[in-house]
Amino acid sequence: MKHHAFGRMAFTVTNVGFGAWQIGGSWGDISEADGRAALNAALDAGMTFIDTADVYGDGRSEKIIADVLKRRGGERPMVATKAGRRLNPHVAEGYTKANLEGFIDRSLTNLAVDSLDLIQLHCPPRDVLYQPEVFAGLDALQKAGKIKGYGVSVEKVEDGLKAIEYPGVVSIQIIYNIFRQRPDHLFFQEARRRNVAIIARVPLASGLLSGKINRDTHFASDDHRNFNRNGEAFDVGETFAGVPFEVGLQAVEEVRKLVPEGATMAAFALRWILMSDAVTVVIPGARNGEQARANAAAADLAPLSADVMAATREIYERLIAPHVHQRW
Question: Is residue 89 reached through a cis peptide bond, with omega within 30 degrees of 0 on the bond before it?
């Protein structure tokens, strides 16, 4: 894994990090022991970036992270969390300084720290991005020492472009993978120009790009790949990257032909993301230690050739883009 600066912040992170949504919830039955094993394996492999949120298991993910890091001791990785999704209803009017401070205080307790490394607005309603007072409130919380920096997790490219107009925004988290290629146009160009860190999430399209899912795969009732197929619980783009399931399976079979001998499709898909120099860190999740170690090893794959990159673009444009490109 490569190490580089996290945008304008004084953190150095590995280009492959640990996405901690799975160890919180909404991915079926993942025991706390397996979650701890996955995180420990990621850290043992050298990962220095962890991404979580206050709503992942209602704080379960944050608490597991805090306990694992306490037990390990030594130099801490950068831990990014998110806030906003605890609002009910989840509306722009709820993004007040008082509410955000309450969410931050809760995460400070869950993570057992005095200051959060990074707080991210958690896919806020678009109107939030047109309320300068929200970002002024985050500036005040940063000056007070409760957060070291702040960013925004977004669903849409347009929201990312708007968010980075605020000078205090140091990072954007966005879906980017073989099935969601639109960010690698104007948005990445603008992010590089402003030295904004990019966190690439949903890198395996909820497991589709692992190549292990087929039409007969069963998903538990508490797995978002079951209950959010049509966006019933949150933005449908978070589930299979918004690609219709059957279309995704068809595209996977074409991508499979491009995977080099000896590599897994998951490693190939992660290496594809790392081909972009705009990406600061990619955050695949892991259900267990084996998956975490495999994610780390993906960074060791040889760079993909121009022909292979062109082939993935052709598959995207022919099969996937009609369903996702203009939506996100």
Answer: yes
